[in-house]
Write a structure and sequence with these properties.
Blueprint (H helix, E strand, L loop, with lengths): L7 H24 L14 H8 L2 E7 L3 H12 L4 E6 L2 E7 L3 H14 L16 H19 L7 H5 L1 E2 H5 L5 H4 L7 H22 L1 H22 L5 E2 L3 H17 L8 H4 L1 H13 L8 H21 L6 H22 L1
Antiparallel strand pairs: 1-3, 2-3, 4-5
Length: about 350
C-alpha cells in the first residue's frame, strides 16, 4: 500500500492548534517555574488553583528570586504555605493572609539567629615598644650599679626604700625610688624579665611614652596603697609593684577597648582573667614576696588602664608620646634628687 502525505491545507489547522497550546503552557512555566498542569483541572497550574481559594499577601520583596529562597525554605520548614511570584518586576514571597503574622515571626527569628558578626577588631599598634623597655632596664640596672659602687657616697637603699613611717612623715618620693631598688641579682633579673615582657606589650599598644608613664604612676599608686595597710616599721623595695601595674594596665585596656566585644563572654573577659591568673601564679609565692604590693600594683594599673581605654590617650600622637616619656623620666629623676 502506498502512503501519501496530506496536503498543507489538511495539516495546517492541526499545527496551529498545537502551537497555541504550547504557547499557553510555556507562558505558565515562565510565570510559575516548575509548575505543570493539574490532571483534575486541565489548563491550570497548582498555583493558579491555589490562588482561587487563598488570599495571598506579600511577606518579602526582592530584586532577585534567589534572595527569597532561604526565607521560603524557613517558612516551609515551619509548615507555612508560601510561594514566590514575579509581580510588577519584583519577586515577592507570598503567604496566606492568615499566616502573615506567623510568617513574620519566623523570618524575624531566623534573622536574629543568623546575624552575621563583624570581623574582630585588632588593637592599633602605636610603636615597637622597645625604646621604653630599654629605658626601663637602663634605669634599674644603673641604680643597682650606683648602689653597689656607693656613687656620690650615698646609702642608696636607705635613702630610697619604701619605709612606711618615713612616707607617712612626708617622704613621698620613696613611693617612686623604691621601684628602682633591688635586693640582689636574682631579684633584678626576675623584674627585668617580667617588666620587659609586659612593658613591651603595653608599649606597643599604648605607645612607649604613655605606657611607661602609666607604669610608673601605677607602681607609685600601688606603693601608696601598700603603705596604707602596712604597719609603720614595714619596708620594701623592688620594681615588681610596677610590673604588676603593667599587667593590670594591659588587662583593663584590652578588655574595655572592646577588642573581644563580639565574642562569647568568656573570651570578652579573657584579658582580665589572664591578669588575675598571672598574679595568682607568680605574685603570691616566695618567702620574701610582698603579695600586698603585687596586688595593689595590679589594682592601680587596672584603674589606670580603664582610664586610658575610655579617654583613648594612646591615640594622642608622637608629640604627646614624647611628652609622656619625658614626664616619666622626670618623675623618677626628681624622686632621686629629693632622696639625695
Amino acid at each position: 500500500m502506498n502512503w501519501r502525505l496530506p496536503s498543507p491545507q489538511a495539516w495546517w489547522p492541526v499545527v496551529s492548534e498545537w502551537s497555541g497550546s504550547f504557547k499557553q503552557v510555556a507562558g505558565r512555566l515562565v510565570n510559575h517555574p516548575g509548575c505543570i498542569e493539574s490532571l483534575d483541572s486541565p489548563g491550570m497550574c497548582h498555583h493558579a488553583r491555589m490562588a482561587e481559594n487563598v488570599d495571598w499577601v506579600a511577606l518579602r520583596t526582592a530584586r532577585e528570586r534567589r534572595d527569597l529562597r532561604t526565607f521560603a525554605l524557613v517558612l516551609t520548614a515551619r509548615g507555612i504555605e508560601n510561594r514566590i511570584d514575579l509581580i510588577d518586576g519584583d519577586w515577592r514571597l507570598l503567604v496566606a493572609f492568615e499566616d502573615l503574622a506567623h510568617g513574620r515571626e519566623e523570618i524575624a527569628a531566623y534573622e536574629r539567629e543568623n546575624v552575621s558578626r563583624p570581623p574582630p577588631a585588632f588593637p592599633i599598634r602605636i610603636d615597637s615598644g622597645w625604646w621604653g623597655v630599654a629605658a626601663y632596664l637602663a634605669v634599674i640596672w644603673a641604680v643597682m650599679l650606683a648602689e653597689g659602687g656607693d656613687l656620690f657616697g650615698w646609702d642608696w637603699r636607705a635613702a630610697g626604700r619604701l619605709h612606711v613611717a618615713s612616707v607617712m612623715s612626708g617622704e613621698l618620693y620613696r613611693l617612686v625610688t623604691a621601684l628602682t631598688l633591688h635586693a640582689d641579682l636574682a631579684h633584678i633579673v626576675a623584674n627585668s624579665l617580667f617588666g620587659a615582657v609586659f612593658g613591651l606589650l603595653a608599649g606597643r599598644y599604648f605607645g612607649s611614652g604613655l605606657a611607661w608613664l602609666c607604669i610608673v604612676l601605677g607602681g607609685t599608686f600601688g606603693n601608696a596603697l601598700n603603705v596604707l595597710v602596712r604597719p609603720e616599721f614595714f619596708m620594701s623595695i623592688g620594681a615588681s609593684t610596677a610590673t604588676f601595674a603593667a599587667v593590670g594596665l594591659a588587662g583593663a585596656f584590652f578588655w574595655r577597648s572592646g577588642y573581644f566585644r563580639q565574642a562569647r563572654w568568656q573570651r570578652r573577659f579573657a584579658p582580665v582573667f589572664a591578669a588575675i591568673a598571672f598574679f595568682a601564679y607568680t605574685g603570691t609565692g616566695g618567702e620574701n614576696t610582698d603579695v600586698v604590693a603585687h596586688l595593689t600594683g595590679l589594682v592601680a594599673g587596672f584603674l589606670i588602664g580603664l582610664y586610658v581605654a575610655r579617654t583613648r590617650l594612646h591615640l594622642s600622637g608622637p608629640r604627646a608620646q614624647r611628652f609622656f616619656a619625658w614626664t616619666a623620666i622626670a618623675i623618677v629623676g626628681m624622686a632621686w634628687m629629693l632622696a639625695g
